[in-house]
Design a protein that fits this description.
The structure is a single chain. The protein is an alpha+beta fold. Helix content is about 50%, strand content about 10%. The chain contains 20 helices and nine strands. A four-stranded mixed beta sheet has the order 1-2-7-4. The protein is globular and about 85 Å long.
């Protein structure tokens, strides 16, 4: 018995020794590189403060960014994986735009995405535009790109505006009933985002403020419950052992929930085909894709009509392809729109309303523009074109995206060996299979690019100052060909709801409002620990 115990102890010791040796070798990656790297902790790398919830994601990224302020590129370790951090706007543009062919993908361990020649399986996330890699991503990008032009947004605007008007009408009815109008902003705008995506991407009408536990909203909320232990475990395993997780069929999102959304889209498509129903939404566009009838229109290629933050489509998105997509591959794109619409827009709106409540002068000026716009319409409904002419609205939204970018960081995956050369003697190879991070929130809050960055100041984006902004340090929707395809839709949603709410309400801090906000210590999102609570105060007309 003693011999067995000694044998087991020796075996365990050998395993620990091998593991230590393996990790130690991993942590030597940056030693021969002419750039500084943060000292890692065994097995945790530089991720420990996040894993043990001692630091929120925003603070963590800023600390990584600020550790070596004199370098354009630095290194750190995400668990045992070495990561390059790009700190300089020109380097970011070089890698993400000019040398895009070396960095075409998101990190597979983060996305579990599929490349040309791989079996895609049934994973909705793995088949989505965000997760796809290589030529398959290029083909899907150019397939979907025509669905997000200014012209298509004009057609969709009525659906978005209906949701915004319905939301404003709900709050007016609550005010008339004498109810307390104190609301948590993330919950409130998640419901708005949910209703917009339901109508725009899934072709159904839901009302998540009046029917607070409707099935579509509750299943979406469950799918995006990033705080659960199971989600955290899946996230860590997909990052640590993506190949193994793929073989085991582990997906980031619960399969029963994805099946619910998948069946909803399939049924909707069948119903439209049977009854010849036409509707200006995403499902209609995906049906056009399937028929091969969705193409770019020449007069829209260079349109920048949705505001300063809008990203332009690259030549990748404008190319013509003739690939035939499977039903599951097309449905996966609706799923991606849902993920982005449910969370990204609500995050932007949450912090934007917080800033308006804390800066009444800015809120009053924006309200004046809303009133002037309303008067100019002379009783007619708001249109997409009129909304885009609201200059101060665009300045406020641009500044909210500067200070509180919903995508805190973005990544790129090196697909072939890349020779980095800063022109000043710093040269090294970023090997195929390595990841680079673009620390959006740190760049947006760096005083080198934005004077007094903690101040919410829409004047940074006035007509005179816009030209002074370093575009490599303003990346709310990403950068290069792999930027966010839905920037126009997101900006349209945000502006439509601000317009409709600000007409009838002012926003003020309540007893529950935290000033300053304490941020939630989670891996994923920019979120206030105790919520963002505000009062809606009806305006006197």
């Amino acid at each position: 018995m003693v011999e067995v115990d000694l044998y087991l102890a020796a075996a365990l010791g050998a395993i620990i020794l091998l593991l230590y040796h393996y990790a130690a070798k991993k942590y030597e990656y940056f030693l021969p590189k002419p750039i500084p790297a943060m000292k890692p902790t065994f097995l945790l790398g530089n991720t420990g403060p996040m894993m043990f919830r001692r630091r929120d994601v925003s603070s963590h990224v800023k600390i990584l960014y600020n550790t070596f302020p004199d370098f354009k590129v630095t290194g750190f370790y995400d668990l045992m994986k070495p990561i390059y951090m790009l700190r300089d706007p020109e380097v970011i543009k070089q890698i993400a735009v000019k040398d895009f062919d070396f960095f075409t993908d998101h990190t597979p361990s983060m996305t579990n995405g599929k490349e040309e020649g791989e079996v895609g399986g049934d994973s909705l996330f793995g088949n989505s535009l965000f997760a796809l890699r290589g030529q398959k991503w290029r083909d899907m990008r150019s397939t979907l790109s025509p669905a997000f032009t200014g012209s298509k947004m004009r057609h969709m605007f009525e659906l978005v505006a209906d949701c915004a008007q319905s939301m404003a009408a709900f709050f007016k009815s609550e005010a008339k009933a004498g109810k307390n109008l104190e609301y948590e902003m993330k919950d409130t705008f998640s419901r708005f985002g949910n209703d917009v995506i339901a109508t725009v991407a899934f072709g159904i009408k839901v009302d998540s403020l009046r029917d607070r536990e409707n099935e579509f909203y509750m299943k979406g909320k469950a799918m995006l419950n990033f705080q659960s232990l199971m989600t955290l475990v899946k996230f860590l395993m997909l990052r640590a052992a993506p190949s193994l997780m793929q073989k085991l069929g582990v997906d980031f999102v619960d399969s029963t929930l994805t099946e619910y959304f998948k069946q909803m889209i399939v049924d909707n498509m069948k119903q439209r085909e049977t009854h010849k129903i036409m509707r200006n939404d995403m499902i209609q566009m995906l049906m056009e894709v399937r028929k091969g009838s969705l193409n770019h229109q020449k007069d829209e290629l260079d349109t920048k009509d949705a505001g300063f933050a809008t990203v332009e489509e690259s030549n990748v998105g404008k190319s013509t392809i003739s690939r035939v997509w499977t039903e599951n591959e097309l449905i996966s794109q609706c799923f991606l729109f849902f993920l982005a619409g449910f969370d990204t827009v609500s995050t932007c709106m949450t912090f934007l309303m917080y800033e308006l409540a804390l800066n009444p002068d800015i809120q009053n000026r924006l309200h004046e523009e809303v009133e002037a716009t309303k008067q100019s319409l002379d009783g007619k409904p708001l249109t997409y074109e009129v909304l885009q002419k609201m200059q101060y609205m665009d300045m406020v939204v641009s500044e909210a995206l500067r200070k509180w970018p919903p995508a805190v960081v973005s990544d790129r995956f090196c697909v072939k060996n890349y020779q980095y050369d800063d022109g000043n003697g710093t040269r090294f190879v970023i090997e195929k299979g390595q990841t680079v991070w673009i620390p959006t929130i740190a760049l947006h809050n760096d005083p080198k690019y934005y004077e007094n960055p903690d101040k919410f100041d829409p004047e940074r984006f006035n007509e005179e100052n816009r030209s002074k902004i370093n575009t490599g340090a303003y990346l709310p929707f990403g950068v290069g060909p792999r930027n966010c395809i839905g920037s126009r839709l997101a900006l349209m949603e945000v502006k439509a709801i601000i317009y409709n709410l600000l007409k009838d309400f002012s926003f003020e801090p309540s007893e529950k409002t935290e000033i300053p906000l304490k941020m939630s210590k989670n891996f994923f999102a920019l979120q206030a620990e105790n919520g963002v609570w505000l009062n809606f105060k009806p305006r006197k007309h």
